[in-house]
Structure formats: structure tokens, C-alpha cells
Amino acid sequence: MPSDDPEAPPPTHPMIRAIAMPSDANANGDIFGGWLMAQMDLGGSNLAGRIAHGRIATVAVDAMSFIRPVKIGDEVSVYADLVSVGRSSIKVNVEAWRRARDSASERRVTKAVFTFVAIDSEGRPRPIAAGSV
Ligand SMILES: CC(C)(COP(=O)(O)OP(=O)(O)OC[C@H]1O[C@@H](n2cnc3c(N)ncnc32)[C@H](O)[C@@H]1OP(=O)(O)O)[C@@H](O)C(=O)NCCC(=O)NCCS
Q: How far is the CA of 53 from the centre of ligand 1 (A)?
């Protein structure tokens, strides 16, 4: 996970990267919060899916913070950090960082705690196999 220093380069690889496009913007020209949450969901679930070894569903998003805006053309990187694994649930700290196209530095734009649940083919919670972390 990147440090709290907004200028510090992330020490880990992002789970996903995307470019914010004009179709992702609101009427002010800033990127929709919903689009950012979707990217965070994708990044967090990329980590949770590796642990669950199968189908998962997002069950909760806690402490969602939008810290600064994202602009069209920005590169958005989503970092995910495992918090805990329960019987069927996986809690993940997720942050999105933006990098302007003409800049080398990244700045944190959002953070939240996502909870995913491993589910079976019927959509019911299923236990996560021991030793899968
Ligand atoms: C995910 C789902 C199957 C869980 O069903 P459920 O009846 O709540 O299941 P349980 O009560 O047995 O809880 C399962 C686990 O989720 C956790 N959980 C449930 N609701 C939670 C919440 N609001 N916040 C945090 N954890 C939660 C439980 O603590 C439990 O964890 P554990 O097994 O590690 O102890 C069900 O809520 C669901 O289908 N939700 C819709 C999911 C969805 O459509 N997401 C969007 C698209 S992916």
C-alpha cells in the first residue's frame, strides 16, 4: 500500500490501472465518484479473488473517502492490502491514486475498506479454504 505521503511513490504494484476518460466525467469535468468506486471494487476483488479461489461478491464498503478529484486523462492506480480473512469473508484496504499524464508523481484520491464474501454457485457464502492466504 502507498504511504501517507502524497508524493511518495507506491512501494507495491497496483491491482489494476485505468485511464479516466471523458465518458467517466460529471458535468463539472471531474471524474464520477461511482466510476472510482467501481475501479476500487475491481482492484479489491482482484486481490480477494486470489484468496477465495473462486466466485466472490462485494458485501460492504466502509469508510469511503474521496480525498481529491480525478481529472480526465489521469492514470488511476488501485492498490489493495489484505486486512483479514474470516470464515467466508475477506476484508481489504483499497486506495486509488491518480497520476496526471504529464507528471511522474502519484497522489492518493480515495480510500475505503471493502468486504468480499466467497460464494458458491448458488450465491451462498462458502468457507475459504485454510492456507489460502
Ligand atoms: C454476500 C451474501 C451472499 C452474504 O450473505 P449473508 O446472508 O449476509 O451471509 P452471512 O450472514 O453468512 O455472512 C457471510 C459473511 O459476510 C460477512 N458480512 C455480511 N454482511 C456484512 C457487512 N455488511 N459488512 C461486513 N461483513 C459482512 C459476515 O460477517 C460473514 O463473514 P464470515 O463468514 O467471515 O464470518 C449476500 O449478502 C448477498 O448476496 N449480497 C449481495 C452481493 C452483491 O450482489 N454484491 C454486488 C455485486 S458483487
A: 17
Residue 4 has pLDDT above 70, yes or no: no
CATH number at residue 27: 3.10.129.10
**Atom 6 (ligand 1) nearest CA:** 125
Amino acid at 102: D
Q: How confident is the model at residue 28 (pLDDT cuts 50, 70, 90)?
A: confident
**Alpha-carbon torsion (59, 54, 98, 22), positive or negative:** negative
Domain with 82 in it: 16-118
pLDDT of 133: 74
Q: In degrees rounded to 5, what are phi and psi of residue 90?
A: -135, 120
3-class DSSP state of 99: strand
Output the CA 59–ligand 1 centroid distance in Å.
5
